[in-house]
Amino acid sequence: MNFSYKTQRYLILFGFLTVPLMLLCAFALYPAAALFYFSLTNWDGLGFDQQWVGLANYKEVFTRPDIFAGFKNNMYYFVGGLLQTSIAMYFAVILNSRLKGRYVFRVLLFLPYVLHSVATVIMFKNVYHAEYGSLNVFLNAIGLESWQQMWLGNPQLVNFSLAFISMWKYFGLSMVIFIGALQSIPNDLYEASKIDGAGSWQTFRYITLPSLRRVIELMLVLTLTGALEAFDIPYIMMLGANGTSTFVINTVDMAFKFENFGLASAMAVVLLFIVLFFIVIQRKVLFRGDN
């Protein structure tokens, strides 16, 4: 069957629009709508016996302090993410210069991001182990025995230890994003600044930093959402024990451990709105000068 050029064009456009929309509905919109529906029911996750309870689950979410208690642990990941972003920018500026062997350093620093979270956690279990862990062994070797700690057994240190793992894992991704943004800055600006006698700090402050503003905004959004959704590292390493449980871990436990999928769905919806709220506040407060 032969179609005219105009018909073929419409068919191609229809196909390119239809398939993405179908995938969006199947894997994003429908699951989101189902999640909201489940949050209005009392459901154990088995069968179709879903008792309608309206907003009772949301009322329980906001009246149970233990549900939101995990957010204090999310703060460790947020602060760690801010520190990681700052250090990643610093390394990106250095590795974007004509440093000898910069490509090797880029690969080495990006490698942790490629590793699976399970492999990363297993590796850091051997680093943090109280007896034969490489960190305590190293401290002992350099004469700092007093600094040796139970990095995962001490409730005062365990969240710092886990946040450092997250920083180490995602540092390379932040650095690569900054390097890509730095390479888009015209060299003419730097050459003009040298002619005008600007120093390294002045060049960074008045050329590099303003040019990275949009990327910094993106990194802050990723840091915020990543901190609020922290799950894999504390769950794999500690299963939420010893005061390491985050809000997402509490949500997963509510669904699969306590078999209360209705309340867990409500917690997930609340988390979604919390993330959206903080993103809006972040844009309004930090970037209110943008048009």
Automatic annotation (TrEMBL):
Domain of life of the organism encoding this protein: Bacteria
Chief location: membrane
Membrane topology of the entry: Multi-pass membrane protein
Transmembrane regions listed in the UniProt entry: 12-38, 75-95, 107-128, 160-182, 215-241, 261-281
Subcellular locations according to the entry: Cell membrane
Signal peptide start and end residues: none
Residue stretches making up the ABC transmembrane type-1 domain: 70-282
Keywords: Cell membrane, Membrane, Transmembrane, Transmembrane helix, Transport
Alphabetized InterPro entries for the sequence: ABC_transporter_permease, MetI-like, MetI-like_sf
Any one of the GO BP annotations: transmembrane transport
SUPFAM superfamilies: MetI-like (SSF161098)
GO cellular component, one term: plasma membrane
PANTHER family documented for this protein: ABC TRANSPORTER PERMEASE PROTEIN (PTHR30193), INNER MEMBRANE ABC TRANSPORTER PERMEASE PROTEIN YCJO (PTHR30193:SF37)
Family designation: Belongs to the binding-protein-dependent transport system permease family.
Protein name, as recorded: Sugar ABC transporter permease
